UniProtKB/TrEMBL annotation:
Pfam families: ABC_tran. The gene is phnK. Coiled coil: none annotated. This is Phosphonate C-P lyase system protein PhnK. It comes from Jiella avicenniae. Residues 7-252 form the ABC transporter domain. GO terms for molecular function: ATP binding; ATP hydrolysis activity; lyase activity. The lineage of its organism: Bacteria, Pseudomonadati, Pseudomonadota, Alphaproteobacteria, Hyphomicrobiales. Keywords: ATP-binding, Lyase, Nucleotide-binding.
Amino acid sequence: MTDTPLLSVAALTRLYGRHVGCKDVSFDLYPGEILAIVGESGSGKTTLLNCISCRLAASGGSVSYRMRDGETRDLAGLSEAERRFLMRTDWGFVHQNPADGLRMRVSAGANIGERMMAVGDRHYGRIRSTAEDWLSRVEIPGARIDDRPTAFSGGMRQRLQIARNLVTAPRLVFMDEPTGGLDVSVQARLLDLLRGLVGEMGLSAIVVTHDLAVARLLSHRIMVMKAGRVIESGLTDRVLDDPQHAYTQLLVASILEV
Ligand SMILES: Nc1ncnc2c1ncn2[C@@H]1O[C@H](COP(=O)(O)OP(=O)(O)OP(=O)(O)O)[C@@H](O)[C@H]1O
């Protein structure tokens, strides 16, 4: 990890009319760091993730990002084309529902290949062999390369979505409940896989989850949200083993319905 943050979020706020989505959220994310955002349903996790990742306009505050050339830019100042380029090349976004992050009507290989082509790769042989390699990294048999995701199980679809996102070696990956819709046994395997890949590639990630076990396994740091605000943050083990805020104590004790 370096001394310069990859991402800096300052006083980020999103209102829906008079209703608070998230308010005054500030934090830095360093290269190689995994941050989990936790909190009960409606606490503002998804709103915050979408504002940070430029999928939703903020009502106030700022997000700055250190680009590949080393320059830190305020994301609100990027042109639409620059923002799209950043999303395609330097960022990944893993949705809870794989159908939101995959193209369901094209083959598994093409789902991976498309991302490579978006960053300029045009060599068919290399694209296909890289796609094969990534399928095996996410434990999908190479023989399924020409199958569409519609023919895959939920767990396989999610693993394909992960491969599609990671194949271009993004520097920052956003994940919204990445194990959300899966059976418990499938979740555990997927988490192991995800943890291995993220660690191996030294990625930075922001993971939204209502599942503290996911936060415990994946993240270095945790931010606890309630009613749109961050009420506690710190190293994951510290926050989960010794929560300071009464709400976090309830969350950890699983007394809250999350
Ligand atoms: N499009 C919208 N219009 C109005 N209010 C919204 C909208 N989206 C979210 N909200 C409100 O903003 C608050 C935060 O919602 P958000 O979806 O970010 O929470 P969350 O923690 O991600 O919840 P969940 O875990 O259920 O997805 C909630 O009170 C929600 O009702």
